[in-house]
Amino acid sequence: MYLLPAFLMMAVFIIYPTIATIRLSFLDNTGTNSAATTCAAGQPCWGVFENYRYALTNPDMLIALRNNALWLLLMVPATVAGGLFFAILADRVPYEKLAKSIIFMPVAISFIGAGIIWRFVYDFQSGGGAQIGILNGIITGLGGSAVTWLSNPAISNFSLMIVGVWLWAGFCMTMLSAAIKNVPSEILEAARVDGANEWQVFWQIMFPTILPSVIVVSTTLSIIILKIFDVVYVMTGGNYGTEVIANRMFNLIVTNTGRSTALAVLLIVLTIPIMIFNIKRFRKEEASR
């Protein structure tokens, strides 16, 4: 009986919406007929799975999938490495609390707010006018040429990832700093007495000890990045080769409900392995205590 309210809330806000989303993913853009009715003559057709064929074969969707993969492969390691660097650095300065507060501050900013801030940082003025963007202002002030940070497909994705690193490095720092403080100082001192330098102490003693925390932070970031939307939508609108799955889903929600919900199901499927990995690791750690 004590679990009934929690179960009811989970059923209303999680289970039912998930089932409804899966159901809609097999229907057409009206949400009433089977997705098989949208098959074009002479074209490949997956029947009721037609919306999933679109999600996995449409050229625009492949770009979105590629971008999500790019975010995972580049932003997760960069953010975790940045957080670990700041955690180690902040622990060694006398003004540790102040330093950590400043580094953590971006975490308190919404993704939309961060997007607006960084649009001003990356701002590019065409026509030879004065550059009001911070980066281009510095570059032109040093005699260089202004850069189209957000409208150049070659660098636009990387420009957005920098915003993600800026937003979440503080979160990683906080989690990893707590793990570093739990490493027994006696072990570290014993290694130094035995002749190990700081680099060896870190990689051979400290890092293996905090590895579980690094994995937790990495998997948490992976789930966040798979759902990334706000930063991309505010800064580029998904243009210039920056569209991601959630952005594509948002653009389709009005014009084609079936395809949009198929993308939502795809996101759910992509996050499930990460969740299972986290649950298994948590149970393993609990069993070892």
As a percent range, the share of strand residues is under 5%
Helix and strand string, N-terminal first? Answer: HHHHHHHHHHHH
Instruction: State the end-to-end distance.
Output: 30 Å
Structural class: mainly alpha
| Shape, principal axes of CA atoms | globular
Largest sheet descriptor: none
> What's the architecture, going by CATH?
Orthogonal Bundle
Overall helicity:
55-70%
Top keywords for this entry?
289 residues, MetI-like fold
Please give a structural write-up.
This protein is 69% helix and 0% strand. By secondary structure, it is an all-alpha fold. It has a single domain, classed as MetI-like fold. Helix 1 crosses helix 12 and helix 11 packs antiparallel against helix 12. The chain is globular, with a radius of gyration of 23 Å.
